[in-house]
Amino acid sequence: MIIAPSVLTANLADLATDCREALDAGLDWLHLDIMDGNFVPNLTFGPPVIRSLREALGPDAVFDAHLMVENAEASFQDYINAGCNHISVHVEAVKHLHRLLTAIREAGATAGVVLNPGTPVEAALEVLSEVDLVLIMSVNPGFGGQSFIPNVEAKIRRLAEAISKQVAEGGRPVQIQVDGGVKAHNIAMLQDWGVSNCVVGSGLFNDRADVATNLAEIHAALQ
Asked: Of the residues 14, 60, 179, 210, which is catalytic?
């Protein structure tokens, strides 16, 4: 299981320090929630902040960018140039999805698609052979602190079956990532459903304990 800490729940006034703490605890991925104020109501950060974060942290961390934006076709290259290794885009916000996924991969990043809770899994199955990751939102995007939506189980299981079939037929392996309300009490359940990558926010960055202690709790739950 890959644990991708959501940096949006870290201390944004000292973001590099909190991200370094996550990397020092043994986490390789950093999940970057990019919101444009249009596709989702909130506004977060963009390429200049990401570029500064990459300069502060060095080349080793995987920058996992979740683009909750309406202009991903026009802006994805800016995020790659800023240091992002992976770009995930929403099927609900992209006009020519196959073309964009191809362009992301040709630009040197890995590519993913994101499904909102109300979006059928078939939207991802249409491009499954073109992606490295499918992100299933288990909350509605744009706000932190929401509760996990349990009816995503059927979507995840259907996706896991399709990926297994694709791999058995010689196709590419695809990670299933889940974002929203993931904590120590439910992460083992997600692993049982076929999830291989979890975005964890307040379950890692909180006032209750440091990242290493919270991560140890999550690892214990997975075992």
From this structure: 179
